[in-house]
Amino acid sequence: MYSKFIRPLLFLLNPEQVHHLTIRLLRLLDAIPGMRWIIRQLFAYHGPSLEKEVLGMKFPNPIGLAAGFDKNAEIPDMLGAFGFGFVEVGAITPKPQPGNPKPRLFRLPKDRAIINRMGFNNRGMEYAIANLRRRKGNLIVGANIGKNSATPNECAGNDYLKLFRSLYEYVDYFVVNVSCPNVADITELQNKAYISQILEPFFEFRRGQNQYRPVLVKISPDLTWEQIDEIIDVLMNTPLDGLVATNTTSSRKGLTSSEKQVEAIGNGGLSGAPLTDRAIEVIRYLYEKTEGRYPIIGVGGIMTPEDALAMLRAGADLVQVYTGMIYEGPGFVRNICRTLEAEGGSQRPYHTFPHA
Ligand SMILES: Cc1cc2nc3c(=O)[nH]c(=O)nc-3n(C[C@H](O)[C@H](O)[C@H](O)COP(=O)(O)O)c2cc1C
């Protein structure tokens, strides 16, 4: 139904407009009493075998919605009704910012991919907090946090700390986004010295709190193995809780869309099917190097339930989807959950160290 009728219609429209319309429609639906329940009956898939404990939290299933869809935390619980085990909102920056000039979101249907250079467009921390405050529901919600584009890297720590402290009581976990290819120079923050500088005040603040909020760092698939080793070093030598791998890629390797089309689009992060193999490769590397001792959220190019399984087998404890949902529609999470249940559920050790 979705791929035969709805997707072809939606793909006739401007991608960013479709995104805004979707958010607006879901907000309207969310205002109707009982609508979340109906959506849950239609789309969510429940099963005790799908539950999984990671990062000290009990997830109803290990499939999450990746950052970038609900940037302003407007409808996390409504999105949860589609069957997600958790939803990551953001990227949220301290001050509101418009992001990059439009157009900045493009589909590559031949590659089952998306290119975006949104540039952390969002309505700022206060707006997100107001939305999170109004929440009713017990869905696990994470905050993906980023610095404002105007903040130089030397002062980035202040932006991240402000976000961490202000959002602390409203979300269940944090993802420090230093891997977005669309914010000038931000990926330099993946360097060990910068990332340690950003994280240290987080841990100090957290030590004084009653509630424990796990902190993860989201990394780029474009890092070299040496750069990934630096991040692993931080993971193993600080109270950092885990990693999210990966963000979108700047690479354009292996695309079947015409070179002319890809060139005309220009810069941006590529997501979807062309990213699958690299994301899995990075996850496998992280898993092997850390001997499976740290939680990994796997994301990047999950376009089929089998991709999700492959990511779990490579070492991910939880996975997230974004582009796959755009191509496969609202029943995508249910399909992944069904496959996972048929494979023996979530607690099954999909990965054991060392890999066979
Ligand atoms: C339009 C769009 C906006 C995104 N915005 C963010 C963001 O704000 N923060 C972030 O960490 N990742 C962001 N991402 C990256 C996704 O969270 C995810 O890491 C990436 O798309 C790879 O997963 P996928 O292939 O399943 O889409 C965005 C992706 C897309 C397509």
Concise overview:
The chain has 356 residues and is α/β, with parallel strands linked by helices. It has a single domain, classed as Aldolase class I (TIM Barrel). It has 13 helices and 13 strands.
Task: Name the structural class.
Answer: alpha/beta
Oligomeric state of the chains in view = single chain
Which residues form runs of ≥5 with pLDDT under 50?
none
Helix share of residues?
Answer: 25-40%
Highest CATH level, the class: Alpha Beta
Q: What characterizes the major β-sheet?
A: 8 strands, parallel, barrel
- The CATH topology label is TIM Barrel
SSE string, helices as H and strands as E: HHHEEEHEEEHEHEHEHEHEHEHEHH
Straight-line distance between termini: 40 Å
Q: Tally the helices.
A: 13
The CATH architecture can be named as Alpha-Beta Barrel
Taking all Cα atoms into account, the compactness measure Rg is 19 Å
Q: What fraction of residues sit in β-strands?
A: 15-25%
Fill in the keyword field for this structure.
single chain, 356 residues, alpha/beta, TIM Barrel, 3-stranded antiparallel β-sheet, 13 helices, 13 strands, binds flavin mononucleotide
Describe the SSE topology.
Blueprint: H1 2-10, H2 15-30, H3 35-43, E1 52-54, E2 57-59, E3 63-65, H4 76-80, E4 86-92, E5 105-108, E6 113-116, H5 125-133, E7 140-145, H6 156-167, E8 173-177, H7 192-207, E9 215-219, H8 225-237, E10 242-245, H9 259-265, E11 269-272, H10 276-289, E12 296-299, H11 305-314, E13 318-321, H12 323-328, H13 332-342
Parallel strand pairs: 3-4, 3-13, 4-7, 7-8, 8-9, 9-10, 10-12, 12-13
Antiparallel strand pairs: 1-2, 5-6, 6-11
Bound molecules: flavin mononucleotide (FMN).
Flavin mononucleotide binds next to strand 4, strand 6, strand 11 and helix 12.
